[in-house]
Amino acid sequence: MRRQFLDHAKAVARFAPVRPAVKAGLRAALAFFVPTVVGTALHLPGALWLAVGGFNTSFVDKGGSYHARFRAMASTALAAAVSAVLGGLAGMHPALAIPATVLWVTAWSFAGVYGAAANLTGNIAATTFVISLGLPAASALGALESGLAVLGGSAWAMVLSLVLWPIRPYRPARKAVAACFDAVADYAEGLSRTVQGAREDAWQTLIQEQHGRIREVLEVARTTLAATRQGRGERGRGERLLVLLEAADAMFMGLIALGEQLESLGPPVSGPSADPRAAVAVALLECANTARDLVVLVEQEGRSRRPQPDWDGRALRDTLTDLDARGLVTRLERARLSDIARLLTEMRERADVALDTACRLPGPLTGAPPPARELAEESHASLMDPVRAHLTLDSEVLRHALRVGLTTTAAVWIASVFRPNHGYWVTITVLTIMQPYTGPTFLKALQRVLGTVVGGLLAIAVASWLQNPHAMMGLLFCTAALCVSLIPLNYGLFTVFATLTFVLLAEMGSGDWTLAPVRIVNTLIGGGLALAGTFFLWQRSEEERFPAQLADALRADREFFDVLARAWQREGPPDASALTEVRRKLGLATINAETSFQRLLNEPRWRTEAVEPLMTLLAFTRRYAAVCTLLASRRSVPSTPAVQESLSRFARAMDASMEDLADSVLHNRRPKPLPAFDALIGWNVPTPDEAGAALGAEAPLLQSQLERLARQLAVLHTAATRRLESLPLATADARPSTINGP
Predict the structure, then answer these.
(1) Global pTM?
(2) Comparing 43 with 160, which gets the higher pLDDT?
(3) Same domain, yes or no: 215 and 121
(4) Whose CA is closest to 348, among 154, 121, 120, 188?
């Protein structure tokens, strides 16, 4: 328990490796303070709601095309305005407050079925409703004025973001695509360092650090570009950015294949001058430099002189020719080095396509057509389809919506019975803290409570020595900008400055300079309610969810290899579209499993299982995929009957073993023993059968790669067994299973 407490304390104080969002902070401060100052100076009714509308709507602007930004901000403004009116009306009739809160807050919390943007809009609408409920209107006209004031403040935030502080439509997409090449450059540099004699475990570290991160960057760029191109008829920059995104994805796949092949190389075959890995390291560094050039070309979007990179597989081929002439390489080593040279040459070809496209980025579309696989357009399915899909208690979104609705209603009831000062601070705390998962909720509760205590103490100190209202407003503008700027770094820091800002504003408006302790107490009450609702209302621990996520990743690995195996049976290359789709599915499934694992580590748990087997399963899920990526880069396989028979038997055994492994992880049972893969492909066995011997004679490199794939599966199998042994007997089915062949 002490170790868990220390882990949570570190998580509370952990800073994200990003820069503060200074521009977003200044924009939010302007969106908040301009309506506040104008409303106060002109004695406008609903000045508070002007500020609330401006501040909340500014949060919704996450970049992208003007169309997408306008739609998100306008829908949020409308939802918040309606919430302010309904909350004001319900507050006038206490008998309606409880049922209205249950229905309205639950409904808006369920908006997460439509994605992250809708979830943010729903949270703002629910928050506006509970504030309005805590500050009931004097009449129906007053409630309507509150809604109009929210619309006015939101309109100011939209003008500020879309007109006075404009962003070029394609700039977010260009920056997102440039980030892909930047990540590719980092990976190429890491490979260059590792191939020159880094520690043996450096390969695994590199995969863990880079593969998931690059896939996330690629998916962000894909989403950003799709949103930017939506509704646009032009076929210039958007098409070229699509070509560049595809090139970055292809370079990423090429680097994965290179890394897997490089790791299989043995120690240096001779002195440093004859070491082929030196030529590979230099080529990878030059590849990284080319990717950095692409970052600059894509971000600046100007006509520039095309860089002329001087790297490919020729230097490695020359080194290999020299070593071969001196008899210093075996047949298998020659095949591996030749394959690495081929992969480097293909990487150079992809880089050339990207450079040509980036240099013509701002001009009209000419030359090569865009790739055949377009980005998926937004689905035009019925708006009710996501709702129907989540109308079950198995849905995390529905469970979260019910938790939030009932817990917020309990907070409203407490505020109506005990009538604490600024009681809506309790309900806002509940809405802010509660997340769909237990771990993030617990972490956010700690950050919210600690941040409120620190911010409240700072508010007491500031109020005791600063009495000038003009100086106070200047200070509060700075603290409001700071609180929004620091959100990407650490939510606790945001809470510190948000508490300082809103407590001092409330004290200035009411003349009551003792609200800081009230804020702290109300936050403690809200935090306690949020944790109680999370733990006692339809809680599903991450320990229950993680096996399903991991099983999905393992099945995605199985599907990846199945695409390759079916292509071998047809004696042709894998279908490009099927290969691309299964790689994306695998990448996303693995990211989901790793995210679930991180949530598992952040959960307060009274019963823990060993972490090492879980980490090994996640790590070698990626290692298995890396070998499949290397196999997918092959142009052909031998088509003799004996080789085809060996491949067919291997594929059937691999498919059955991966499916059994995924099922065993999902249902906490012991996986079946693995078949003898070495015998199937004739690897390191005294008397291989005819098919295995034919594979070793005709395709030693393919035989080596399949043996490597079998080794990754063996590690996964061992880790799954160790995980089972670490579970309580009541959870795991530890009965031994019979040996089943492929």
Answers:
(1) 0.70
(2) 160
(3) no
(4) 188
